[in-house]
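Entry:
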Amino acid sequence: MSTIKYSIVIPVYNEEEVIHTTYHRLTEVMKSTGEAYELLFVNDGSRDKTADILIQYSQQDSSVMLLDFARNFGHQIAITAGMDYAKGDAVVVIDADLQDPPELILQMIDKWKQGYDVVYAKRTKRKGESYFKKHTAAMFYRLLRSMTDIDIPLDTGDFRLLDRKVCDQMKLLQEKNRFVRGLVSWVGFKQIALEYERDERAAGESKYPLKKMLKLSLDGLTSFSYKPLKLATYTGVALSFIGFVYLIIVLYLKLFTDNTIAGWSSLIVIQLLFSGFILMILGMIGEYIGRIYDEAKNRPLYIVRKTYKQQPVRKFAHRE
């Protein structure tokens, strides 16, 4: 049995504007439990003073540990590293931007003590986010759910509590293009949702611009569904049928009527349409092949440059 009851995993990337507040709010919440805990910050290649601030906290507070990556490996990899190093009987994943309220951790702990292995936070409102981001996120979760056989909860992020046995199973999953919330659903166990309203960022800018959101979406789809490949097959069959019908029409007009299709405009349009679909299908296949290539290289998921943690002071007995 671990001497640490709770491990709080906090991936950080350029969060110097908010990290002081994050540390103090998390510390206040965890001290109120009256049980042993650790705050495990994972610095994902920050270029500001985030790492320096956390190094100071790790020297002042024995409950703080910092994993300092050799470079930026990505948010999902940072969460994975935190889970790998976490020692607690329960592991909580939370972002540093305070959009997810640390105070909700206490309710997660209550549910965990009731016997649930995974307690995930489900957003009922998303404050401070654009109309585009809110609705594209909602569409993605519903698309992902419809295309997979795994019950991935709607409107959830990575803010959740995992029992030790769930965390141990997650360590066995070493795929490179990770979608952590999907993997947690895949391993199963007894899970329950906690609804909450997501706040605006306390400071700084979102670390998930459109490019990263698209990458995460593709990782989710390709990790848990091969239906896009089936869609490519169905599309190819449909286009071939349409092309064959069009060929019959052209031959009929040529052989049995005096009407022929004037010019090449229609042919060019159809050719462009077919070429576009072919390239789209090839791109879809390429996404899967690229992920196979990543797995075949078998490189480590991350490299930790250094870990920072206050070492306990040894006390020696004085000899007379």
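The first helix runs from residue 19 to 31.
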